[in-house]
Amino acid sequence: MEEAEEDPYHELEFMTTMHFLQRYLPRRGLILDAGGGPGRYTIALAKKGYDLVLLDLVPEMLEIARHQIRKAGVGDRVKQIVEGTIEDETFDAVLCLGGPLCHLLEEERREGAARELIRVAKRGAPIFISVISRLGLLKTILIEFPENIKYCRHHLEVGDYIPGVHGEGFTAAHWFLPEELRELFERQGIEVLEMVALEGLSSHHREETNRLAGDPEKWRIWLEILLETCNHPSIIGASEHILMVGRKP
After folding, report:
1. Is the pTM for the entire model greater than 0.85?
2. Fewer beta carbons below 10 Å: N end or C end of the chain?
């Protein structure tokens, strides 16, 4: 997916994700950034001293990533930029962030992708998966696309979006319920450590969040509250994006 917009609200997804990466990543090691697109997390973690392999199936994204990695001066930390397959149990941590799993409409393909992400992780390695929330999508439709309210029942019950069939404005995608994401990986034997609302209490409040960010002291207090509550069960499902942190047994 494209890099987040540069306003405080859209930075929340990145900021909250980095908070939980730093909580659960090993102190050092080789990390796979699967579906990493232009390499935002690859670059951020390389700057923190991790070694990374960036994997994406879109050659154009990999070209952008190569440019951004050179520009950031972290090429020595990015060991490979790969369009292809990876050997078993190679990585000390595996990332699949920004919603790549959402672009697999068939359940069998999502199951297969989950197995691949687990296959390449070492035993005991943390796995980080973020997706677009199905309930969060319904709130987005209410706020931004009320003309598509007629498709809400379909989105709630099925979770699949096909352009031209269920409205316009996005590529074909599958939206996740929190329990669906959790169960997808638990069926593969993963221990789920955290479920996180990446926008937390700010979700769908872009204008208010950006206004608050203009006051450094209020912003500091709000970010503390957001990070303390973003894994509360009552908040997770209604956020725009959900992060799952798991561990391979």
Report:
1. yes
2. C
